[in-house]
C-alpha cells in the first residue's frame, strides 16, 4: 500500500493563474515555443503602435507646425473634423445634420438598453419616419433652404448611403426572395435572373453603370442627381444579396407551417405576412445584419464615381497642400471609426441571436 | 348559394396565377421597352452608333502593365484582353496567398494555445471589420508610396528589392536543357499515379499496404534534383541591379499590383479563416473517437475521416470567397492598377462613349465567372453529398 502511494507524483496545479498558464500556454514543448513566438510578435507590434497612437502623439495645436513629436499628429484630424463629419455642407445649416445625428443616436441607444418598453415603436420610427424627416432636413423643402447633394459628404454621406441602402433594400430583397420561391414560373424566373445578375458582378461595375448608363436610360431632360443614381445602384445590389439571405430563411421553414396555414384557409399573402415571414426573418436576422455590415463597408466605393464619402473626404483632406504627409493618421482614424461601427453591429447581432433563440 | 360560373373562374388558382404572371411580364416588357427606346433616342442625339465595331479600332492609349504585347496602336479588343489578364493575375496571386494565410489563421484560431488563438481572433476581427478599399489605400498610399527611393531600397538577401517604384525579384532563366527536367518531372508524376492505383488495388485484394505516398514523393523529388545535377543546373537567375535611378533586370512588380494583391489576400484570408474554422468545428468529436476505436492511427484519422468531411463543409464557402476576391479585385480602379474595370470600363469607355457595350462586356466577364463557379459548386455538392439513410 504505502509503496504505491509513494510512486504517484502529486497532481499538477490546474487552478489559479499558474495552473491556467500551464494548461493554456505551456502544456507541451511546442506550445511553449508557440507562446514565445506569439509574445515576440506582440512585442514587435503593440508597443510601437501604442506609442505612435497615444504616447508620442500630438493632440493639441492648430497647424502642421505643431506636429513636432515622433508619433501621430491628431491635429490633422482635429483641424479637418468639420469636413470629415459633414463634408462641404453649408456651415449655417449644420444644425439640420446635427438633429439627425442626435435623433439617430438617441434611438439607437434606446434600442440597445435592455428591457425598455415601446422598442417596437422606436424601431418603426427609425425605419419609416426618421428617413422621411431626414429627406426634408438634408435636402430642404418645407421652408428649409435647398442644399445640393454635391455638398454632402464625410461620415454624414456614408451614413445616408448606408441608411438608404438598408431601409430600401430589405423590402425589395424580401419581395425578390418571395418571387424566387414562387410557384409561378414567370415570376420565379424573372426574380432569379435579377438576383443572379446583381450578385454576379462587382459593386464597382454597378456604380459605373449607375453613373454612365442610367443617363442613357432616361428620356431627354430627365436628369438624376449623381447621389441618387449611386443610391439606386447600391440599393439593388444590396437587395439581391438580402434576397438570398431571406430565401435561406424561407427554405428553413418546415413544410408543416405552410400546410397548416393553408389548411386554416389563409391566402398567400396572409400566410406569408402572418406566419412564414415573421418566423423565417427571425432565423436570418444575424445574416441580415451581416449583409448590412458588408453594405456599410461597401459604401466606401462611391468615392470611385466621385462622391466624397467618409473615406473620400479623408483622401481629399490628405491631398491638401497644408497637410501633405499625414495619410497614416487619416487612414488609421477612418479604420478606427469603420471598425467601431462594423464590430458594434456584429456584436449586436450575436446578442440578438442569443436573445431570439427560443429553442424550437 | 352555389358559386356562379364566373366566380368559379376568377377564384381558380390557375387562372389567377396566369393573370398575375401576365401582368408581371407585361410590366417588365414595358419597362425594358421604355429603357431601350430612351437609350436609342439618347444615343442618336449624341451621335453614338451602337454595336461592337469599336473593338477593332486603334485604342491610342497606353497601359502601364501588360502581360501580352500591347501598344497604343493595338485595338480596343487587345485592351480588353490586357485588362482581363491583369484581373486574372491579381485574382490568381491573391487566391494563392489568401488560402495559405487563411488556413493558417483558421487553424490557429482553434489552437489549444490561448495566446495563439487570441492573436488569430484579433487579426480576423480587425481585418474583417475595416473596408477593403481603405486597406488598399493604406497599403498603397501610406506604405508603398512612402517607401524609400530606389537608392535606399529595402533589401532581402541581396536579390529582392522593395522601393517606391515597386518590388524587384530575381527572374529565373531556363536554358535549352531545362526542358529535359520538366519532361522528367511530368513522367515521374505519371509513374506516381500508377503506383497509387496499383497499391490501392493490391491492398483491396490482399490487405498488404504499400507506402505509396513516401515512395512517389521520394521518386519525384529525387529524380528532379538528380536531373538538375546531371544537366549542371540549367536555371540561372537574372538579379535586378541598380542602374542610374532605378533597378534594371529581374522581375518587376509595380507597386499597385503589390498593394492590391497584399490587401486582397489579407482581407480575404480573414474570411477564409472563419470558413476553415467552421468546417473543422462541424466535424463532431464522435467521428474522431469512432475512428480511433476501430484502430486507425492519428494520421489516418485525419486523412481518412476528418479532412474529407471538413472539406465538404469548407469547399463551397471557400470558392465563394475566391469569387469575392476576384470581384473585389475590381477595386484596382481606385489605385490605378490597370485591371479590366480601369482599362476597359474606365479609359476605353471615356474615349469611345460606348457605355452599354463596354459595361455589358465587363459585367459579362464577372457574370460568367460567377455562374461558372456556381455550376462547378453544384457538381461538387452532388458528388460529395452524403447518402442519407
Quaternary state reads: heterodimer
Numbering strands along the chain, what is their spatial order in the largest sheet of chain B?
Answer: 1-2-3-8
The tally of structural domains of chain A comes to 2
Calculate the terminal CA-CA distance of chain B, rounded to whole Å: 52 Å
Order of helices and strands of chain B: HHHHHEEEEHHEEEEHHHHH
Return Rg of chain B in Å.
28 Å
CATH topology of the largest domain in chain B: MetI-like fold
Number of strands of chain A: 0
Question: Describe it for me?
Answer:
- The complex is a heterodimer of chains A (360) and B (389).
- Chain A is mainly α and 360 residues long.
- Chain A folds into 2 domains: 54 residues, no CATH class; 225 residues, MetI-like fold (Orthogonal Bundle), CATH 1.10.3720.10.
- Chain A is built from 16 helices and no strands.
- In chain A, helix 8 packs antiparallel against helix 15, helix 14 runs antiparallel to helix 16 and helix 15 packs antiparallel against helix 16.
- The mean pLDDT of chain A is 84.
- In chain B, helix 4 packs across helix 8.
- Chain B has 389 residues and is of the alpha+beta class.
- Chain B contains 12 helices and 8 strands.
- Chain B is 67% helix and 7% strand.
- Chain B folds into 3 domains: 41 residues; 235 residues, Orthogonal Bundle (MetI-like fold); 68 residues, no CATH class.
- In chain B, the strands form 3 sheets. Chain B has a 4-stranded antiparallel β-sheet.
- Chain B starts with a helix and ends in a 5-residue tail after the last helix.
- The mean pLDDT of chain B is 84.
- Chain B is globular and about 85 Å long.
- Chains A and B meet through helix 3, helix 9, helix 10, helix 11 and helix 14 of A and helix 2, helix 4, helix 5, helix 11 and helix 12 of B.
